[in-house]
Amino acid sequence: MVEDLGSAGERHVSAPSRGAPAIQLVGVRKSFGEVAAVDGVDLSIAAGEFFSLLGPSGSGKTTVLRMIAGFEVPTAGAVLLDGQDVTRTPPYDRDVNTVFQDYALFPHMNVRRNVEYGMRVRGVPASERRRRAGEMLDIVRLGGFAERKPSQLSGGQRQRVALARALVNHPTVLLLDEPLGALDLKLREEMQVELKAIQRQVGITFVFVTHDQGEALSMSSRVAVFNHGRIEQVGTPREIYDQPASAFVAGFVGSSNVLGVPVSTRLFGVAAVHSVRPESVHLADAGRADPVDGVRVGGTIADVQYLGAGTKVRVAIDAESVLTVTDTSERLAGRQVGAPVDVIIPPGAPFQVAG
Amino acid sequence: MGQRLDEAARLSYDEAVLPGAPTPGPRAGARLSRAFTRRWLALGSLLTPPVAWLVVIYIGSLLALVAVAFFRLDGRTQRPTTSPTLDNLRQAFTVGTYLRVVGQSVLAAVAVTLLSAMIAVPVTFCVARILPRWMRRGVVVAFLLPLWAGYLVKAYAWKAMLRQGSKFGVDKAGGFLESTFGWSPGFGWLAVILSLTYLWLPYMLLPVYTGMERLPNSLIEASGDLGAKPWRTFRDVALPVLLPSIAAGSIFTFSLSLGDYIIPAVVTERKVLMIGNLVERTLLAPNQPLAAAFTLWPLLIIVAYLLAMRAAGAFENV
Hints:
The structure holds two protein chains of two kinds.
Chain A: H1 7-11, E1 21-32, E2 35-46, E3 50-54, H2 61-69, E4 76-81, E5 84-85, E6 96-99, H3 111-121, H4 126-139, H5 155-167, E7 173-177, H6 185-202, E8 205-210, H7 213-219, E9 222-227, E10 230-235, H8 237-242, H9 247-252, E11 257-259, H10 261-268, E12 274-276, E13 282-285, E14 295-306, E15 310-316, E16 322-328, E17 340-345, E18 351-352
Parallel strand pairs in A: 3-8, 3-9, 6-7, 7-8
Antiparallel strand pairs in A: 1-2, 1-4, 4-5, 9-10, 11-12, 12-18, 13-17, 14-15, 14-17, 15-16
Helix pairs in contact in A: 3-4, 3-5, 4-5
Chain B: H1 2-17, H2 24-68, E1 71-74, E2 79-84, H3 87-94, H4 96-130, H5 133-144, H6 151-162, H7 176-181, H8 189-214, H9 217-225, H10 230-258, H11 262-267, H12 275-284, H13 288-311
Antiparallel strand pairs in B: 1-2
Helix pairs in contact in B: 2-13, 3-13, 4-8, 4-10, 8-10, 9-10, 10-13, 12-13
């Protein structure tokens, strides 16, 4: 799949660095009736990685996660955990635990019994269960909440109970299905930091599903970007952001100016789709010399958006193309709608992407 | 809500016609309390007729029933007098024969309830979690369909099905069960339990179905994810979460079964006696005060059952 992307894509696929892959997906497909939710996915996730599956809703990322967990059986292809084929193994026989989007805490059990459930099912002695559950609740900073019912906890606390309930079983892989989606912004940012710290502490492979590109970039060691049931690109957050392999990745991860073939040909002399990050583009006074080198194109300011620390300026460079430029508000001060400006695209800023 | 909006509109109207009112403090308080009084008056006048109906007709007749249980029967006229006695209660609550009937009735009601729950859980599981969505509504209507048929029709239908053939009688093949399966439980307690289960099953199916539909799929998946095999998941997760729904259904199946007297009378040809039959016979004796004393049995048992169900959490989230 990744090879299909051509030279641009291939360059950015970094091989898993440590040991044998914890998870391997080989040509996995999943159809629901006529609809192909996952349309041929090959993926290899190394042990100890914090791996994100990023994509818009309906892109197949959650279905991939559910196939790793065992809730869905692939229509074709194979799922391997630690080199073992588990394609048709039921969830209860897989060494994988899941943090559900709605947490799925058992409402009739208190926090301790929720956390102990996996160990109880596996026949771990009561004293050890209690000790391990206590330790894990301390790690997620819920030591004093063991006797509470889930209904007596806040959203963030429930989320941490779900995390503890899954992690306490020391699974090979922890799957997280948009676990921060139901939290408010501040709590979400706190949990991002906390999740990363916990992952470092326990050293378990995390597979994290999200549609939030900021979340994926800030937390992951590697990211797979999904679109229409296929993987568009796999790479480190920096690779994904700096060298997007396709117009879709460029547009979905961060904001990006995607320039079509005609404009690209005019500007760069190459007949291919290009992508330019708004923060890499420089704005100069029309016709006046500027210290920044690069491809220079004249235009008219179509819109100025003041965003506090930064400002976003949209410049129309011809009838169809608009370039977005972001910079500090200080540097973009005084720009007026309708004024003529020059846009400078420094060398190295534009990237050729697959259409 | 509508009432409150109405009030708000009126208050602002008051303000509009009295523009020069500069002291909002105490006046606003008085206005507010006036609004509250009016609301309570409106609510009161709305609720009085149904509450009065409930108190006079429903609770009143129940109290009259309890009162009659304390009256002496005039042996000559066979009518209750107003002279008080505890004889009726002593008979109804101490005589061994009567206690046996009460005990058997309770056991039968418990059996009907358990049987209904054992049928309702797997059936509603299939309908709510396996059947495609568009078929569900039709099946739920089918659950309720038997309730539209007459009670007596169903009683006689079961009698016809349960009848055992006789070597010497006209009917050698017996009813549907015996002629089809070669065996019928005959007209005993089993017949009563089967017939009552058929009659009251819809009242168990409905709440359990609602509970099953509300049971989040992720809970089932989470249990499997944590290593529980399907049976363990059912026992540890699904059943406890469904328990309030089952308890809600059991209130119907239990109390309706306990008070029934037509099924034993019709289906078993009076071979089986339940509390209701005891009341009926005593009433026809005629001994109204003793019959009234017998009716206290189901009353007390059902109150105790409701209290137990409340303690079990059956009334939460219903």
